[in-house]
Amino acid sequence: MKNRKLEYSNHINHLLSCRKCPKMEGNPVHGCVPSARIISLGQAPGVHEERFGKPFAYTAGKTLFGWFKKIGIEEETFRTKVNMSAVCRCFPGKAKSGDRKPDSDEVSNCSEFLEFEVRYHKPELIIPIGKLAIDQLFEMGKYKLEDVVGQRFTREFHGVNVDWIPLPHPSGLNVWNHTEIGKKLIEQALNKLKKHPVIREEFSL
Q1: Residue 109 in 3-state DSSP?
Q2: Rounded Cα distance, 24 and 4, in Å
Q3: 84, 117 contact by CB (below 8 A)
Q4: Where is the Uracil-DNA glycosylase-like domain (predicted)?
Q5: What's the rounded Cα separation, in Å, for the pair 46 and 39?
Q6: How far apart are CA 190 and CA 150, in angstroms?
Q7: pLDDT band, very low/low/confident/very high, at 1 (cuts 50, 70, 90)
Q8: In CATH, what number does 1-203 get?
Q9: Residue range 20-49, pLDDT digits in tens
Q10: Angle at 121 between CA 117 and CA 124, to 5 degrees
């Protein structure tokens, strides 16, 4: 147990000291917890997250945790029980509309941290949030959000058999969330999350 704690502490130190990607702005942000049966997978932190020292700490986070509250999960409890990972751990900078999408090299550079967390925790459930996160798990090529949101999938990921239930990105710029199909499928996804055995056990639902 002591060696495992040290291994995870070393992982966090390695993550926080990473400076591989010159176009990334600021320092890495993490939502790591030492023991987790669930991993959430965001895209990348926003401009405010480094200041708060945690993922989904600003407006998109309010929307995300508003969704979880609908199924009886409070933000504070979620953050203690779920390892909050991301495809990239640094703020990518701004684009003309919203944040810049990390490029393939940046995704590749950061993938070692996600792989470690999956192999270490051996999660029973992954919750990818947003298309860049869903891209890491979806194996069937091109897709639309309505093809995946509201469904439950299973696959082997970094050597671990895991269920995954995707959510769209909760950004205010994501107009899909406010369409009739978007609202319907977000509700379906939340219901599937609420019924998942590991969610029921971890959050006493």
Answers
A1: helix
A2: 30
A3: no
A4: 28-190
A5: 19
A6: 8
A7: low
A8: 3.40.470.10
A9: 999 999 999 999 999 999 999 999 999 999
A10: 115
What are the boundaries of each domain within the chain?
1-203
Cα–Cα distances (Å) from 73 to 66, 79, 124, 150, 164, in that order, read 9, 10, 18, 18, 18
CB 100: neighbour CB atoms within 10 A? 16
Q: Output the pLDDT for position 141.
A: 81
Taking only the tens place, the pLDDT of each residue in 171-190 is 988 999 999 999 999 999 99
- Report pLDDT digits (tens) over 52-90: 999 999 999 999 999 999 999 999 999 999 999 999 999
Query: Is 144 exposed, middle or buried, given 0-12, 13-18 or 19+ CB atoms closer than 10 A?
Result: exposed
Token duo for residue 82 = 């779920």
Distance (Å, whole) CA 91 – CA 109: 14
Identity at 187, one-letter amino acid code: E
Q: Give dist(CA 179, CA 184) in Å, integer.
A: 9
